[in-house]
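Q: Sequence in, structure out?
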Amino acid sequence: MQTLSKPTRIVVIGAGAVGATTAYTLLLRNRADEIVLLDVNADKARGEALDMQHGRPFTGGSKVWAGDYSDCADADIVIVTAGVAQRPGETRQELLSRNVTIVRSVVEQVIAYNDHGILLMATNPVDVLSYVAWRVSGWPAERVIGSGTVLDSARFRFRLGQELGVDARSVHAHILGEHGDTEVAAWSKTNVAGVPVQLPEDQKQRIYTETRDAAYEIIRAKGSTSYAIALALDRICAAILSDEHAVLNVSTRLMDYHGISNLYMGVPCVVDRTGVVRIIDLPLTDDELTLLHRSAAELSKRIREVEALF
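A: Exactly. Output:
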């Protein structure tokens, strides 16, 4: 007798702008058989799920509902977006102490029901909180992943595509390090069809600044970011569930990566059904390495500042 396979399930914890938009994106992409929304405000989660359920006649596919932590038991991926929102003018790191306690509580409740899935962190500041989630969970680092600089790299490619007059999908470019103010543009590896991108320094600086500060501009204009990060999280989920071995700049625990150890930051990783299967040792210039080490030092400092909280 043929054994029926278990339905794939993604649990999204946090039904705010990022969580709800992520769940909706997963629904539209039919990314998993089951999508579960959790939130401390149960009515908010129920309302978001009900609104999506009413669209199923147009989409078919994924079943959506508002649940509780027991629904994490059968989850292939648990996406954590829960936390206090970034305020206009507030840096991601100013969110840190406020969100460490929230993430610790969330992860403790997830691991009470699930010991086999992949934890995908999106709450900011995502690199430090991914490290917190890894420590609290006790899971192997390859199964605790941060969204990292997947979105930043997409923003970088978009801006380069605008400047160069080519489709952003044809631009190969990486933002590395922190998802935030110390992120690093790997200009030496930026190319279109293998041809290195050559731009004046002032133009490069403008593109980098607009990439780095994009979230601040969006938050000032509309209060939060949601669409592009939802698409970035969906892309990571696709790589996991389809066992793609895709290269994505997720945040992962580094051990002697260009001399950087025991912290989470965004670097190119091979992502498959097991999580981060391999970290790619991207060759960098001396200047880029200096900036990457500066980013790592800042992240290490912030980890030390909140270590007592977890």
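DSSP finds ten helices and 16 strands in the chain.
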